[in-house]
Amino acid sequence: MNATQATSDDILIGRIAQGDRVAMQVLYGRHHVRVFRFGLRLVRNEQIAEDLISEVFLDVWRQAGKFEGRSAVSTWLLAITRFKALSALRKRKDAELDDATANAIEDTSDDPEVTVQKKDKGDALRRCLSSLSAEHREIIDLVYYHEKSVEEVAGLVGIPENTVKTRLFYARKKLAELLKAAGVERGWP
């Protein structure tokens, strides 16, 4: 690069700092290929290198007013590119798993048989709940599905706490009987 172009790059940065979009287009046109090639050598992925171009020139647009001229504009652009490329490589390294590591991760999800058993138990539970009296269903719903305390249920329903406890006791007892009759044991396999 000759001295005239270096000087004109400094002028372009000054104009970019003032929001001149044409100056930005000229700087981009002059340096985007160099930024792309440098980024590509670092990240070895064309898509990431393309993304780097956007990030680098976005930073130039935002930071042009802070450019102090201690180096050539082209050097500044490559420094930004290097920083962005190393960040991208760190992110990619964190995101990638090799096959051995991926295979070593235990799959704790249910197998199809357990999923069907849970679905069947869920269906049976819903049927048994619908067989409870309205008062018992309401207490079970508030305590177990809405996670309300006995005190909160008493306030919501307008009955004494001891009545809530009694209904909850009998509702659980009746539910256990209904589930056992439906062939459902407690808990999941």
CA-CA gap between termini: 72 Å
How would you characterize the largest beta sheet? none
Strand content bin: under 5%
CATH architecture of the largest domain: Orthogonal Bundle
Q: Number of domains in the coordinates?
A: 2
Query: Which fold does the CATH topology of the largest domain refer to?
Result: Rna Polymerase Sigma Factor, Chain: A
- Shape category: elongated
The count of β-strands is: 0
Assembly context of the chains: single chain
**SSE order, as H and E?**
HHHHHHHHH
Provide a count of the helices: 9
Q: Which CATH first-tier class of the largest domain would you pick?
A: Mainly Alpha
Question: How would you state the average pLDDT, rounded?
Answer: 84
Measured as a percent range, the helix fraction is over 70%
CATH homologous superfamily identity of the largest domain: RNA polymerase sigma factor, region 2, helix turn helix motif
Radius of gyration based on Cα positions: 33 Å
**Helices and strands: which structural class?**
mainly alpha
| Poorly predicted spans | none
Characterize the structure shown.
The chain is 77% helix and 0% strand. It is an all-alpha fold. The chain is built from nine helices and no strands. The protein has two domains: 96 residues, Rna Polymerase Sigma Factor, Chain: A (Orthogonal Bundle), CATH 1.10.1740; 70 residues, Arc Repressor Mutant, subunit A, CATH 1.10.10.10.
Quick take:
The protein has about 190 residues and is mainly α. The protein has helices at about 5-15, 20-45, 45-65, 75-95, 100-105, 110-130, 135-145, 150-155, 160-180. The chain is built from nine helices and no strands.
